[in-house]
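From: lab user (bench 3)
To: helpdesk
Subject: output format question, protein + adenosine-5'-diphosphate

Hello, I'm new to running complex predictions and I'm not sure whether the block I got back is the full result or only part of it. Here's what I submitted:
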Amino acid sequence: QTEETTTALDAFDSDIPLAEREPIITCDSINKWFGDLHVLKDVNLEVKRGEVICVLGPSGSGKSTFIRTLNGLEDIQQGSITIDGTSLSDDIKEMDKIRRETGMVFQQFNLFPHMTIKKNIMLSPMWVRKWPKAEVEKKALALLERVGIPEQANKYPGQLSGGQQQRVAIARALAMEPKIMLFDEPTSALDPEMIKEVLDVMKELAKTGMTMVVVTHEMNFAQEVGDRIILFDQGEIIETGTPTELFENPKHERTKLFLSQIL
Ligand code: ADP
Ligand code: MG
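Helpdesk reply: Thanks, we reran it on our side. This is the complete output you should expect:
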């Protein structure tokens, strides 16, 4: 394993407590509409470098739309988003930079079915980053080792289980050396026996100091790995706090209602 595949947070930052770190993501009063539907309402959020944010909330509350705005997959009509010092704007060069530095893992793994696992991982680093093939191949194999499936390198996605495919999707995102990883319900499409293997990989990633924003219904993961939980309802962040604050002492009635339905 190379140093850069294991360390997201440099030694300097890891010595600084979360509260004193600079934010790597800043959302300032963002608003978004789909036609008449006001889907994000004055959303404010600061994420520190190395912080793990878990996003909870009922279906249709705007969680996916929200995390898709963070890498420009969805645009916003009001407010601003700053990622690692770069403001999300229409400037194509800046958007490219943000997309390279923001890895995303979806519920559906979205691997290219006609390419081997190794090629799936190598594609973007070679063609977007333009890193040399030999180096990228070495990195791909190291990442497969890291997500626990080095023996699958030359197989095709259809030959892997859902849990293995999702681990490939994580490796593929990491191959771009992102500064931030976004996860949108990464285990929701998996059979129960495969959920743990994916959450374990995410847990390991969190330990390296990767900044992560994770939409999930996995309460144990949120409780154990999340530095902070945010709860969405009807396009608003209605409550935010540490897992202990949110699970053991929720302030908002809607938080209590949501927790009573899922726990
Ligand atoms: P969640 O991920 O919390 O389930 P979403 O962000 O997917 O919620 O959706 C929030 C709301 O926006 C829902 O009412 C959904 O139907 C609507 N929505 C999502 N995507 C689109 C779209 N592309 N066009 C119109 N409405 C959308
Ligand atoms: Mg969603």
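A quick orientation on your result: The mean pLDDT is 93. Let us know if anything else is unclear.
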